[in-house]
Probable M18 family aminopeptidase 2 (Streptomyces alfalfae), 432 residues
Amino acid sequence: MRTPSGPFDRGHTEDLMTFLAASPTPYHAVASAAERLEKAGFRQVEETEAWDGTTGGKYVLRGGAIVAWYVPEGVAAHTPFRIVGAHTDSPNLRVKPRPDAGGHGWRQVAVEIYGGPLLNSWLDRDLGLAGRLSLRDGTTRLVNIDRPLLRVPQLAIHMDRSVHTDGLKLDKQRHMQPVWGLGDDVHEGDLIRFLEDESGLGEGDVTGWDLMTYSVEPPAFLGRDRELVAGPRMDNLLSVHAATAALAAAASAETLPYIPVLAAFDHEENGSQSDTGADGPLLGSVLERSVFARGGTYEDRARAFAGTVCLSSDTGHAVHPNYAERHDPTHHPRANGGPILKVNVNNRYATDGAGRSVFAAACEKAGVPFQSFVSNNAMPCGTTIGPITAARHGIKTVDIGVAILSMHSVRELCGADDPYLLANALVAFLEG
């Protein structure tokens, strides 16, 4: 593989592993991204305050979403944007409003299935608990119990002799509730009191919560030559991390013909329809306010949007060696083969020929190879924030990403070179 001409190498992949471990929830992911941007000179702006048109890097946090942008010196109000879009959420098990449950001598936590996880991958895993606590005084606090706390125990084969012939059948309600202790009585409020103690809060301080489980097993290099990476939430924190690094790098460029933007949304895994999702108003509001803060008019806003391009970066499917027939016979993306261009003529992906040219030019500039992905015609195609972004904002959008295995598993797998190849391509795209 040729050496990319961008700023990132294998050290980027090692930093990705640190990012994954520090980001068990969307709230932690955007906090980690903001910390990296702060070190690059970006500053947070509040949506409730008036914005100015000064140059430099800025970002907005809203729940599990972040939008960040860099305004070059002397840029015109009608200057188009170059956006990298991604999402911060991953399928998992999330705590219900009344979490304390159990029976038959076991204490359990009641969970709801978020998104479309591979349920079997959550069995017999040591799980931590993390998320956001809403406090009585109106503030919020992140919490992360980063140790083995819960477990969804699998039924022994002695009690399910047909599992190998009939397949594992899991009922989302009956079979996916984790245990976290022993006891004959369910005491309502136990879990939240435990989290208050762990967070140094007083009893009754927590009045709301958004909590989710995660595997505490850390990311790791895999294989004889350490050419693979296994880890959680690569879909889609791999893209969030790459886009954050790329934006920070682009902000140091001497000249920029576009305004580079990172837009990382929550709730992609369940449809993006929320105030922090790609189908909400957040991105459009931030871009418009940026134009108007620099003295622009609605005409400037229209001109800027007309020239804007978004790369929707999300993971895709590498060819699976045990199920190669499930892939399109002429499109077999390989690990460490570079980022993938995702195409679907029914607009499950937003890529068209003109968008392909934009991405090809960025990869050529970065010295990065890329591959193409389409689904087998007999298989339904997934989707991304790409078509939503294109339709909601009238922005040219291209779907790309990194090819992985075990998508939606509690632990996914990618090539160790692909994260930094993607990041280098994103830098070239943002720099124009």
Remarks:
- The longest helix spans residues 234-250.
- DSSP finds ten helices and 20 strands in the chain.
- The longest strand covers residues 92-103.
- The chain has a mean pLDDT of 96.
